[in-house]
What does this fold into?
Amino acid sequence: MTVLITKDQAKLVGEAKSHGQLFNATGDSHQTIDDDFNAMEVPVQVNKIKQLEEEKKKRLQLEKNEAEEKEVLAMKIFTN
It folds into this structure.
């Protein structure tokens, strides 16, 4: 009976670039096709997370800039 690999093992399998790394990640046990698909999905998810974090960082910076601009405009209105 083949045992499904854990999420940590799937991450290691997905990042493996050589047979030795793959051997170490699986502990020389057999993999199911589901394990292979899960391992292939790891880099895709990592890239998606990075992209979303970059977008969030940009949105937060724009929000901060907008708040500062509103402050400056409010000061100009009160000083005139």
About this structure: The mean pLDDT is 80.
